[in-house]
Amino acid sequence: MPAAHWHPSPRRYQPPTDPPRYPTWWEIRYVDLNGDISWRNQRITCGKALRSQLLGLEPIDDRLWRLHLAHFPLGFLDERHDPRILGLQNA
């Protein structure tokens, strides 16, 4: 049984106290309580797991952005296709 091998970590989780910092040329968006960001007067769903986070959008190409949470790349926002669809793979 896996539960028989589990034990609590001796380390206590310390969440970050400062918001992430992004380069000044990136776009910054706040994820609302529904898991959405506002982008070009539209709502883009990022997921409820990202609620209340500040995300950075790094410009990659014309109308193509890489989405970051702090220094973790999450996926791409491709405005050349339906901008309401956020590709969260192959970041």
Task: Describe the model.
The strands form 2 sheets. The protein has a 5-stranded antiparallel sheet with strand order 1-4-5-6-7, with no helix packed on it. The chain has a two-stranded antiparallel sheet with strand order 2-3. By secondary structure, it is mainly β. The chain has no helices and 7 strands. The chain has one domain (24-87). 0% of the residues lie in helices and 38% in strands. Strand 5 and strand 6 form a beta hairpin. The protein has strands at 27-30, 36-39, 42-45, 54-61, 64-69, 72-78, 86-87. The model has no long low-confidence stretch (mean pLDDT 87).
List low-confidence stretches. Answer: none
Number of separate domains: 1
Distance between the termini: 36 Å
Specify Rg, calculated over alpha carbons.
Answer: 16 Å
The topology string of helices and strands comes to EEEEEEE
Q: How many strand segments?
A: 7
Helix content: under 10%
Widest beta sheet: strand line-up: 1-4-5-6-7
Overall geometry comes to elongated
The major beta sheet can be summarized as: 5 strands, antiparallel
This entry's quaternary arrangement is: single chain
Proportion of beta-strand residues: 35-45%
Count of helices? 0
Coarse structural class: mainly beta
Output mean pLDDT: 87
Map the helices and strands:
Elements: E1 27-30, E2 36-39, E3 42-45, E4 54-61, E5 64-69, E6 72-78, E7 86-87
Antiparallel strand pairs: 1-4, 2-3, 4-5, 5-6, 6-7
Properties at a glance:
0% helix; mainly beta; 91 residues; elongated; 7 strands; two-stranded antiparallel sheet; 5-stranded antiparallel β-sheet; 38% strand
